[in-house]
Amino acid sequence: MTTHPFGIGDTVWVASYERTQRFVVCPDCGGTTRVKVTLFDGTEIMIECGGCNPGGFMPSTGHIEQYDWESAAEDLTVVGSEIKNGLRGNEINYFFLGGRYSPAEFVFATAGEAIAKSEELRLKHETEENERLMSKTKDHKSWSWNYSYHLRMAKRAKAEMELHERKAEICKPHLKSKK
Length: 179
What we know:
The protein is 33% helix and 35% strand. It is α+β, with helices and mostly antiparallel strands. The strands form two sheets. The protein has a five-stranded antiparallel beta sheet with strand order 6-5-4-1-7, covered by helices on one side. It starts with 10 loop residues before the first strand and ends in an 8-residue tail after the last helix.
């Protein structure tokens, strides 16, 4: 039988971590929003940076979004608990005011224990985030794709512009003249 280390009304410390957003200069373009690409024939051209491009119709920004992780421990009062039979055995969840809850593995009797756990969580998530961000700078295939994509879109836009200019010329003689 699993016992609850904490009961209703007990004040406990809950380990957590919070992300604070910051922006850093793009490691691909150095903040210029443009990168130089060398084509197969040795021709060098400047294209929009894909590393700091947020996607959609937005242009490259020259910086990338990064998060700093901060360890935190919050003191809360237990208002309920439950035991679930999960894949890892019995799991205890504690409930707090405002509908918040936390698994027992993040609930501690002292602030020091909660901070130690939150530091462990913070380091794990910070490492994962940094690995994800740095993977952008190693994928050189995206630059050639980016170049060919924008070149195709520019050709398409030129053809569409020429089509509409020709159609406008056809319409011009049929305009009602102002008297």
